[in-house]
Amino acid sequence: xxxVTQPEKLLSVFKGAPVELKCNYSYSGSPExxxxxxYSRQRLQLLLRHISRESIKGFTADLNKGETxxxxxxxxxxxxxxxxxxxxxxxxxxxxxxxxxGTGTQLKVEL
Amino acid sequence: xxxxxxxxxxxxxxxxxxxxxxxxxxxxxxxxxxxQQALGQGPQFIFQYYREEENGRGNFPPRFSGLQFPNxxxxxxxxxxxxxxxxxxxxxxxxxxxxxxxxxxQGTRLTVV
Lengths: 111, 113
Known about the structure:
Chain A has about 110 residues and is an all-beta fold.
């Protein structure tokens, strides 16, 4: 069975401080991993996916298969980063991705 | 290009009733997935439709059923509603592929009383 664990429900940091949102997964094959974000009053949207290996809005995430982790990092938090962040995993079955989500981490960036 | 739209936005039903939720996929997307998001939880995969056929199902009972139409729009039907079915129901459309981006609708908030 596949599982995604986000241990922190709430993470509060000051503006300009580094951010790390933790995500660990359990999956028997080679997973595809994503970070989705939900800003206030907006719909859930993709932030980044590990296969793209890109930085979006200053965020990066590296897949560590040894530690089964996919932590989301940003060196300097901005006020507009305040949002709900979900780590998600997609299995290898055919068709579009079928996502298993973590419980989410609420990031609050304080001035 | 139009985004994913869901209707209605809010709904109140009585225990034991049946409900139908609707979703219009993003233009060009052939796959639609439905998720249930209980309060304080992440979205949980219900099932997926690809080219009008069910293409995977999560841990939900048969009273949760769905349809996908030739224009790729979709319905989620829930029979014999229970209080625990109260949640936000999200529809997501995508192209085929496990690494593709899922585009989410704004959700339908279902309250069962």
